Amino acid sequence: MENSEIIYGKNSVMEALIAGNREINKILISKNIHSDNKINKIKELAQERGIVFQFVAREKFQPYAEFNHQGIIAQISPIKYYDLDEFLEKKEHTNSSLVILDGVEDSHNLGAIIRTCVCAGVDGIIIPSRRNVQVNSVVEKTSVGAINHIPIIKVNSLVNAVQTLKDNNWWIIATDASAKDNYYDVRYDDMNFAVIMGAEHAGVSKSLLKASDFVVKIPMQNSFNSLNVSNALSAIIFETLRQKLTKKAK
User: Fold this and answer.
1) Which terminus of the chain has a lower count of CB atoms within 10 Å, N or C?
2) Domains of the chain, residue spans
3) Is-contact 196 208, C-beta < 8 A?
4) How many CA within 13 A on the CB side of residue 21?
């Protein structure tokens, strides 16, 4: 692991939090170290800035054995995340598109999704700060540079983000294997829309399904219903592009 991916040691992590000029994905604190004033300050600063911190077993620090980490590591993002309000205010959105990821845990999947979204002209990707992989060096490499061509928006609550989008004239389309409607039955070419993709094992959460305007599925020819999330997104997002291009051609 490259040193540029992490900040390690109590003083360095605390100073990074105070300065506020680094994009921190997550802070790992060993369960084996005793709390002191510095650890308490780090926790306080992380909470103020909405940065996730976790107390983890000693084994989690094995990849960082070469560093004098003192039982604390801050994982750094290679990009600067966007704020949702900042994204919405930046320009007037007409037939814009977003992808919302709910629980995607594999870095390679996220990198592939980012690559697909850039190729299809998606305007941004929303990820939650918890229970979803964050942008790291593996994501950056898998995206083959696409990460630099699309806003990645990080939010504390996907439910709140969806409500904000709805309040700003966006339509929400969730994906679910048991949905009645197929993904190509929705008209995507005359609205701002966000497509929610869930993880393979869990799918989109019930609260997000309930908040969605449409729930759609990709029809399957047999009972083996386990399409990779990045492949599933490709099918849906290029259908939205097909509709947009067909409308322009008329």
Assistant:
1) C
2) 3-76, 84-249
3) yes
4) 3
Q: How many residues does the chain have?
A: 250
User: To 5 degrees, how large is the angle CA 118–CA 102–CA 216?
Assistant: 80
The 10s digit of each residue's pLDDT in 63-91 is 888 888 888 999 888 888 999 999 999 87
Would you say 219 and 236 are in contact if contact means Cβ atoms under 8 Å apart? Answer: no
Classified as helix, coil or strand, 104 is coil
Retrieve residue 71's tokens: 């039982």
Q: How does pLDDT run across 132-163, given as a tens digit for each residue?
A: 888 888 888 898 889 989 999 999 999 999 99
Distance of alpha carbon 47 from alpha carbon 25, whole angstroms: 13
Domain 3-76: homologous superfamily in CATH: Ribosomal protein L30/S12 (3.30.1330.30)
How many CA atoms are closer than 13 Å to the CA of 145, on its beta-carbon side? 0
Per the CB < 8 A criterion, the answer to whether 198 and 175 are in contact is yes
CATH superfamily placement of domain 84-249: SPOUT methyltransferase, trefoil knot domain (3.40.1280.10)
- DSSP H helical ranges for the chain: 10-19, 37-48, 84-90, 107-119, 137-142, 158-167, 206-211, 229-249
**Cα 85 to Cα 152: distance, rounded to the nearest angstrom:** 13
Answer for the pair 136, 107: CB distance below 8 angstroms, yes or no: yes
Is the Cβ–Cβ distance between 200 and 179 less than 8 Å?
no
Supply the DSSP symbol for 65: T
The pTM of the full predicted model, rounded to 2 decimals, is: 0.84
